[in-house]
Amino acid sequence: MTAVRIPPVLRQQAGNQKKVEVTGSTVGEALESLLGTYPGLREQIFTADGSLNRFVNVYVNGRDVRYEQELATPVGGSDEVILLPAMAGGR
Amino acid sequence: MTGRRSGPETDALRPHAHGGNARHGGRFPSIVDAIGFTPLVEVPRVCPNPNVRLYVKLEFMNPTGSVKDRVAKYLIEDLESSGRLRPDSIIIEPTSGNTGIGLAMIARRKGYRVAVVVPENVTMERRQLLALFGAEVIDSPGHLGSNGAVALAKHLVAKDPRFVMPYQYGNDANPRAHEETTAEEIIADCPEVDAFVAGLGTGGTLMGVGRRLRRHNPDVRIFAAEPLPGETVQGLRSLDEGFIPEIFDPGLIDGKFLVSNTEAIESLRELTEKEGIFAGVSCGAVMVAAKQLAREMEHGTIVALLADGGWKYLSEDIWTRDLEADEEVVDSLNLW
Predict the structure, then answer these.
(1) Is B154 annotated in the active site?
(2) Tens of pLDDT, residues A41-56
(3) Does residue B174 belong to any structural domain of this protein?
(4) What does pTM read for this prediction?
(5) Residue B316: pLDDT band with limits 50, 70, 90
(6) Contact assignment for A88 to B200 by CB distance below 8 Å
C-alpha cells in the first residue's frame, strides 16, 4: 500500500484524513484510488481535461512528478506520495 | 562520505580546482557596489560521490549576509531607471526577511524610505536587522506564510499611492540580477559546471542562473530544492489561493526536491561539522538535493548556491535542538 499525504487545504474533501492508504502502481493509479474513496477531490486535483491542476504539486519520495514521468511515475511499497498546494516562497 | 576524503593530507593531494576568474575582494566606492563577487568553495567532505566535485557558492559573504542583496540592488535600480520613485515614495515589498534587509540597507545608503511586509512569525534576528536599517515592518498573518505577505502588500499598494512595489515575484530585474552577476561569476570560476542547485522561493535564482548557464552550455541541468511546508503555514482556503510566482517558468528546470526542515537542518549541521561552513536553513535543503544529485551522477561538477548564513536562525536553536524529539515542532517552523 502506498500512503498519500493530504495537505490541510484538501482535507475537508478527504474525510479530514492527513494520510490515506491507496493502491496502484503509478501516481495516476494511486490518485484514482484516492478519488475512488473521496470523489470530491477530483475537481481540485485535476483540470477538466484530466491533467494535474497547476496549483497542485505531487511528489513521490520528495521528487516532483512533473519532472519524473508525471502521472506514469511508478509508486509502490513504502513510497510516500505528497500532495501540496503551490505556495509563495522566497525571502 | 568516503573515508579517503576525510583527512587534510588527502585534501592537499586533490588537484586544485579551476583558479577562478571572477573578481573577489577589491575596493569599491560604496557598500552597494560591494554586492556579489562571492567565493565558490569545494566541499569534498560532504560529497557522497568521489567522482563528483561539489562546490558551494557562499552568498552569505554579501553585505547583509544573503543572496538577496543582488536582487535588492537590481530591484531598486529598476525603480530608479523606470522613474517610479518620487520624493514621497515608500518602497514596499513582501518578503520573509532577506530581500527586505537588502532593500533596507541599500535604501539607507541611497536615502529612500522602505516598508516591508513580513509574516509575523519570521525570526527575531530578521526583524532586528530590518529595524536597524530603518525599514518599517508591517506584519502579515503568520499562518498565511509568504502568500499572506504578498496579498497584504498588494492591498496596501492599491490603497496608498505613495507605496511603490518592486515586486520580486513578478519583476524580471530579480532573475536578471542572477543572470548578469551570479551566473557570470559561476561561469568565470567553474566553466565546467554540469548541474546547478538552488532553493526555490521566488524562482529568481533558478531562472536567472538557469538562463545564463544554458547559454554557456545547453546541457547544464538546473535543480530546485523546495521546503516541505509545516501544517501551520498552509493557511489556504482553496487550491485556487495557491501562488506561482510570475517570473517562475517550471519548464526551465530539470527537477525539484522537496525537503523537510528536519532533513535540511541535519544536512546543515553536517556542513558545519565537516566543512566549517555556517549557513542558513534553506542551504541545508539545497545540500540535501545536491548530495542526492551527486549520488545519481556518474561523474561531473555540481554548483550549489547557499543563499544565506546561519546567523539569522540562532534564536531558533537550529544547531542544538534534539531533532528527533522536536521533529514536529521543527517541521512546522517557517524558516525559508
Answers:
(1) no
(2) 999 999 999 889 989 9
(3) no
(4) 0.92
(5) confident
(6) no
Q: Do B234 and A66 touch (CB under 8 A)?
A: no
Same structural domain, B192 and B285? yes
pLDDT of B3 > 60? The answer is no
> Which of B68, B73, B291, B312 is an active site residue?
B68
Per CATH, the number for A2-85 is 3.10.20.30
Closest chain B CA to residue A13: B238
Looking up residue B30, the CATH number of its domain turns out to be 3.40.50.1100
Q: At what angle do helices B68-81 and B98-110 cross, to 10 degrees?
A: 50
Kindly give the residue spans of alpha helices, DSSP state H, lying in chain B.
8-13, 68-81, 98-110, 124-132, 145-159, 173-177, 183-189, 204-216, 261-275, 281-296, 327-331
What's the total number of domains in chain B? 2
Distance in Å, alpha carbon of B11 to nearest chain A alpha carbon = 33
C-alpha closest to that of B126 among B326, B310, B322: B310
Q: How confident is the model at residue B258 (pLDDT cuts 50, 70, 90)?
A: very high
The secondary structure element, H or E, covering residue B114 is strand B113-119
Question: What mean pLDDT is predicted for residues B20-25?
Answer: 74
